[in-house]
Design goal:
heterodimer, A: mainly alpha, 8 helices, about 75% helix, B: alpha+beta, Double Stranded RNA Binding Domain, 7-stranded antiparallel beta sheet, elongated, binds protoporphyrin IX containing FE
């Protein structure tokens, strides 16, 4: 071994950094292609590309991908990459295979600039909620690992999870993502109410879609409260955030497929 | 906080059943269907308020408790906040090194100069700054600069919670005043805003009928187009109604293009285009050969193909009253089983299929009757000469004679009609303004991070030891970066190992 050789730990770190950079570059490439796809869909339909479940899914996952890149730039959150790319690729696959529908014109009720305002806010908030849920999952895994390591200091420390930041740091990122998404979601619901006044002659009618938007809102408000409530910080709050995300997903998948209601735009 | 958390959970859970069980306010016909399907369950659900969850006692109880706990939280916190605003930034804890972000260094400056520079720096960062002089000059002299920032957070938080109260009060107010009603108007006909012109009318608790705005309008024209090809064929692409509106009986009319998403607003009353349908135009002659009825009759669309059901009552027919019941097919086609259906919502091949009745329509009893339902108790159905019941199938221009010289019916063509929703909802700006305030408050409460900073300068052995520390009052911030920034601004030069500390001359240069 030459005298200037680095130790195995440094070599390992360097190697993992190199692969990390390659992974990030590929993610950015994927993001560009994804953006191109969404833009092309918009041109094909001659309107904003969020008029059906397929279109909402590709736009929302684009928002999640962009949010991930923002996190990487601001908080060096490359450790999130594995989870984000796996989930986004799955989501896009489901969108392509299950949700895909050719371009179709919008029903008359959707001809409104509120489509742009309300749905884009909902898609961006949805993308951020998705990312927030992933960060929360990682936080739960990491904090369990830390608890185990604290009980048993002899524990070997290889593996992906030991390369992530401390649970506390992950929790901070989770909070910031949710703190960004929650006001935006509030705004999306408000914009929806105003649109409903124009389209359906009432602001709020407890349509199933509206009910679940409300439930999602309350669940994330509970998350923010949990973080400020003694005994609920940390893991309990993270579980509340995941409940919030489950209600969001149910609204998107469950209500669109099962429910009737006025929000009949799924295209399926 | 714990109470609020529990109540928030309860509210979320309580909202769920209303999205699964049909709701009276949302879809009354779905509720009726549910009652038919589950005769055992329905009475239980009735008792629990499951068909109107969002106005049920238990749902209201949860959000009222939530609001109560909000007021209970709000008032003491307002007092605490007022005190905090008036207070000076607090003195430093004894041991700054124990705070989450800490740094220390030495400087040749005198204690006062170092403290003054620290105070200037922190003031320039728009922090509230207080300088505490702990002891006399000379050896052991100590000055502590305390700074605090982020008062807006709590203000935003208070604003947010207050705004939720505004939303709730606003919703309560809007449920007291105004009304909501529906009217169906055939193209070419008019509507004037009086109670008798409404098909249905729901006043709110404090509505005053004499306050109805005295406007009227005529539906001059109605355009509808459907997507004709591709995967979305049959989707309505656009519909709009051309109205001629008079705000008052004596004011000049003006034109308004009424569309979905673009309601007409007259004096605070809004008119929405919510639906449309076909009104077959028929002429009915009675047994004497006289015209007993002529004109369009509103048929109700049954599905997205616009197969429409309707009833034609002819009380003026003599010697016996006549009635017809049946379907209008805008684009009639025959299924392989020989059943007629509509292949497209637009009127490409309109066909009317009717069953004819004669007898007593029962209109004289005085009991109110729906125009869409035929009371068949005292009616007999016309049959073919062989005695079989038969539907009359009419294309545009066709006339069908009724058996036994009882009369005839002619299908002249069709008109369209529009379904309008008319409502007055004073006070809706209150809850809307509440939500906007809530978002503003939320941004303050989520993105402002209160932070306390202390810089302690103490003279020791001819030098000044400076300690800087910061404490965030909420998690999520990075106080260490802030302390590093303060340190790099105040520290004399690049840090070196202690044995190489520069002498005073070097620093002053
Ligand atoms: C519909 C009901 C409510 C909603 C949607 C709501 C929402 C929120 C939100 C979004 C925050 C910001 C969280 C943060 O600063 O980290 C917050 C903070 C807070 N809420 Fe509420 N809240 C509600 C009811 C209540 C009630 C009833 C109470 C009183 C028991 C309460 C007490 C607090 C307190 C003390 C904070 C400050 C937490 C902190 O400083 O971080 N909230 N609330």
């Amino acid at each position: 071994m030459p005298p200037t050789a680095v130790g195995p730990a440094e070599r390992d770190a360097e190697r993992s950094d190199r692969f990390g950079r390659i992974g990030l570059s590929l993610t950015v490439l994927g993001l560009l292609l994804h953006t191109a796809g969404v833009v092309c869909r918009g041109f094909a339909a001659s309107r904003v590309p969020w008029g059906s479940m397929y279109e909402f899914a590709i736009t929302g996952s684009l928002a999640a991908a962009v949010a991930y890149i923002v996190l990487v730039r601001r908080y060096s959150a490359r450790w999130l990459g594995l989870l984000v790319t796996v989930v986004l690729v799955t989501l896009l696959g489901v969108a392509m295979i299950v949700l895909y529908r050719p371009v179709a014109p919008l029903t008359a009720a959707l001809h409104s600039y509120w489509l742009v305002i309300h749905v884009s806010a909902a898609a961006i908030a949805g993308g951020a909620f998705t990312l927030g849920a992933l960060v929360s999952v990682l936080f739960l895994l990491r904090s369990r690992l830390e608890a185990k390591a604290a009980a048993n200091p002899e524990l070997p420390r290889p593996g992906f999870l030991w390369r992530t930041p401390s649970a506390e740091a992950i929790d901070r990122v989770a909070y910031r993502v949710h703190a960004f998404a929650f006001p935006l979601w509030t705004f999306a619901v408000l914009a929806g109410a105003i649109w409903a006044q124009y389209a359906w002659s009432r602001f709020w009618g407890w349509d199933p879609k509206e009910v679940w938007a409300f439930i999602t809102w309350v669940a994330y408000a509970a998350y923010l409260h949990a973080r400020a409530t003694a005994g609920w910080q940390g893991r309990a709050a993270a579980y509340v955030a995941l409940v919030g995300f489950a209600t969001f997903l149910f609204n998107f998948v469950g209500i669109n497929l099962l429910g009737s209601g006025l929000h009949a735009y799924s295209g399926l | 906080m714990r109470t609020a958390l529990v109540l928030l959970f309860l509210l979320a859970v309580a909202a769920v059943p209303g999205s699964i069980i049909p709701q009276e306010q949302v879809d009354p016909s779905a509720v009726a269907a549910f009652r038919n399907r589950h005769p055992d369950l329905a009475p239980v659900f009735d008792r629990l308020g499951m068909f109107s969850v969002y106005s049920s006692i238990w749902f209201s109880a949860i959000y009222l408790l939530l609001m109560l706990s909000l007021v209970g939280c709000f008032i003491p916190r307002l007092r605490v906040y007022a005190r905090a605003l008036a207070a000076r930034p607090p003195r430093a804890p004894r041991n700054l090194a124990r705070l989450p972000a800490y740094d220390t260094w030495q400087t040749p400056e005198p204690v006062d100069t170092a403290a003054e520079r620290a105070a200037q720096l922190l003031r320039a960062q728009r922090r509230r700054v207080e300088v505490y002089r702990a002891s006399a000059d000379g050896e052991g002299a100590e000055v502590v600069v305390s700074a605090e920032k982020g008062y807006v957070r709590e203000a935003g938080n208070l604003l947010f919670h207050f705004a939720l109260l505004v939303v709730l009060v606003g919703v309560a107010v809007t449920s007291l005043f105004g009304f909501r009603g529906g009217a169906s108007v055939v193209v070419g006909e008019g509507f004037s805003n009086t109670l008798i012109q409404y098909d249905d009318f729901t006043p709110r608790a404090r509505f005053d009928p004499s306050s109805l705005a005295p406007f009227s309008f005529t539906v001059e024209d109605f355009d509808v187009s459907w997507q004709r090809t591709g995967p979305g064929a049959g989707t309505p692409v656009a519909f709009n109604a051309a109205l001629s509106v008079r705000e008052r009986p004596d004011s000049p009319p003006y034109d308004y293009d009424l569309r979905v998403n673009s309601p007409l607003d007259v004096d605070g009353t809004s008119v929405f285009l919510v639906g449309h349908g076909y009104a077959p135009d028929v002429t009915v002659r009675d047994g004497h050969g006289d015209v007993a009825y002529s004109g369009p009759v509103i048929f109700l669309p049954q599905d997205s193909s616009f197969v429409s059901f309707g009833v034609i009552k002819v009380p003026d027919a003599a010697p016996t009253q006549l009635a017809f019941e049946g379907y209008f097919f805008p684009t009639a086609a025959l299924s392989p089983q020989g059943q007629p259906y509509s292949a497209f919502p637009d009127a490409d091949n309109p066909v009317l299929s009717l069953i004819a009745y004669r007898g007593d329509l029962g209109l004289d009893s005085g009991a109110p009757q729906s125009v869409y339902v035929l009371d068949k108790d005292r009616l007999q159905r016309f049959t073919t000469p062989g005695g079989n019941p038969r539907a009359l199938l009419l294309e545009e221009g066709d006339t069908a004679k009724l058996a036994g010289g009882a009369g005839s019916i002619t299908f002249n063509g069709y008109s369209r009609w529009v379904k309008l929703q008319i409502s007055e909802s004073p006070g809706t700006v209150i809850p809307l303004a509440g939500v906007v305030l809530a978002i503003v408050g939320l941004l303050g409460s989520l993105f402002v991070r209160p932070r306390r900073t202390w810089v302690r300068c103490r003279s020791t052995g001819g030098r000044t030891v400076v300690e800087a520390a910061a404490l965030d009052r909420v998690s999520g911030g990075d106080p260490a970066a802030h302390v590093a920034e303060v340190a790099s601004a105040l520290r004399p030069a690049a840090p070196r190992p202690a044995h190489q500390l520069p002498d005073i001359q070097e620093v002053r240069r």
